[in-house]
Amino acid sequence: MTRSENEVDQIVFRWDSENLTGSTGFGPVAWSGPRDEAENLFRTFGTVLRASGEETRPALVRLEGRSTVMLVRRSPFTDAGGGTSALCHALVGSTELLQPAICLGLHAWNWEGADVNAARVRGPLPVIQEEVLVPATGRGQGELDGALEYASEELTGTVAEFLRHPDERFTVLDERGDTAAPVLWGLHSMFGGLTSRRWTFATHDTVELTTLRFVFVGRWSGAASRNTGRRRIDPRERIGDPAEQVAARLVRHHLRGIEEGGGGEYAIGRALHEVSSGSAARRTPLLETATRALDALDRRRAAGPTAGPTPRPRSEPPTGQPPTPQPPTPQPPPTDPPQSTAGRLWAWASGGRAAEDDPPPETGPTAGRGGTPRAGEAPAAPAGPAPGELRAFDRPGPSDRPDYWFREDPPEKPREENRRPSSPQSDPYDHRPRSPELADPRSRPSRAPRQEPPAPGLPDDREAYADHRPTSDAPHRADLSKRPSEAGDGRSASPGDDDPGSRTEPHLPEGPGRPAAQARSHHRPPQGPGADPYPRPVLPRAEPVWTGPAAVRGRPWAKVRGRGREREVETGLVHKLSVADTVEEARRLVAGGGNRELLDALRRPQAYLFLTLLLRETARRLPSWEHALRRELCEVAIGREFWAVAPPGAEADTSDPPEEQRAANAAELYRWAVRPLLARGDAPVGTLAELLARLRTGPAPSAREAFWLIVDGERPGLPEAVWLTLLKEAYGVPRTAPRPGAPTPGAAAGHPDDPGNAYTRRFLGGAGALIGFLVVAILVIAVRGWFT
Fold this sequence. Notes:
Mean pLDDT: 69
Helix content: 25-40%
Low-confidence stretches: 306-528, 551-566, 737-763
Oligomer: single chain
Shape: globular
């Protein structure tokens, strides 16, 4: 039925006197695909669609055929005769498009166009494009991550039963009525890549059908159905066996990974996949596999780098005692959704259009998800993030929103002391609609937002995405928060406002030109004979627009789990982009280009607006890229010096940004394109050290500001070799200090990025000694033979 792999059809099923079959009763009444396909689907899955009875309540149902998936939102419905029936709105697409993780992300059914009047509609319906589902998928997956701790008790019990019988079908008791989707999400996040069985489910049903692998019910309705091979689970019951202990550890690890961010939500799945690879491991019971995966995670955490985010303390059993199967205590959600403030986008980055900004995150007291501090944790300060916790505007996050998501700026709301202003980000590709309750796509409106930048799927990326910005503005910027806007936009900072986030935003013109107000001085006068010859320039603070592959805690389409299609196409992007006449044409070319073409275009000189489009698209695709492409991107970013310095002739580029914006973008690019590889020890450390040294001493204010934005944080993520190089540069010490009797620097040393240099030198030294000994022995033998 689906027209292409990037489209889904929709069908509405209900009781009607004029349904598709020409008879009165339940059946398809509206559809977007061929009529015979809709009728075939109804004949195949009609039993599931007709669910009715007193216990019927809204449910999300995923059904899977040979090559087709049908995702159904089923609701109670009163038919014309006053009877209780069901109203079903279904999406039908390929198994690659409607994967389980994507279907669960659509659990709220709030994608654009989902509000069709299913109770009255009849006849043809429009086809749904893939990009229409993008915002709802990201928000929905984020909401489920935020709800996992609330449903942790049910998740622990379900995981325990899954560990005992991984190949069975399950009927799960959901007495609270709102834990089915979070439990399925947590279960799939951990075990989705480990089992080949289909993830078919109904978040509520009244009949235990064999068609569904997971069925959730509100209460037991008698004896279990016969001949269904199903296991009934009350996830809140405990028996204290090893499966429950392992399940509790799995859930704790998973919740901690989500809270820490940086790919932590993938840690359990990756560890399970690693220990289950190989034919022998695949025959190992799942419980044993999970135990080995947990042990590997514990060892990795104990031996991991210290530069990663500091997890909040959790209650752990005393050393030497087995862990208890008690999950984290559920916290009922609060009721106040986050608020938002409006702002203006950088005009040059959006082609002169205005759009809404990211609503500000909460910076009030940090506590557990329910609002209370955890055991052993001191209450946080009234404002600012907890140590090791990311701030909303500090996190990398890809934005892939087409133009139809841009909206007019809402009226500005009064700022509160415990809130930061919205980030003036322009995002040509951000699919996320901005609204107060969806400001943090990975947090539910009813619970405090938690930050979690994603990992590109590598084992140690959790530490790579830690927050590395200072928790407050540098002292030399304190006076800027009290200075009125230089362009005279009528706004001025409050005198005595101590919140560095409440600064006055610099005004930019509506056109894509460089503001004339940037002609001010960027240097501070030296304070004395010992003053730094390369001081940090005094620049207004700017929020980056080159954000990376995770939007706060949401999941844009390139990051949604289970999504990894590569785009290796040849479109001539490199040559066509240089002759693009409009921003829309350039945006279209970039979106259709191949992965290699994006990197090739980044290697060439480009207008800054085109760079922004290229890097936005790169960030959107980055989580699905293979490691070789990520390494190549890292090398390109370093080779182009993060574009921190305007190239010659930049004054002719109408999209060239001010110095502070260029520096902010360069530092942000480092955070998501280079730092993850540094954390894994797979980045050119020596080249990066040389680049940072050049940026520190560069004449351009944007270069020095980019340097400070990169290094001036609690955990910049730089290895010791880079810090040593910077320290030697700052004190004028040669990079390789000669030792007495040692060869001159460079004689035996290779490239600083070559990890095998030390081993090579040792090998060559030993081989040289051996060869010398053999030559001497041969000469001695020859001399003795000569005289005898």
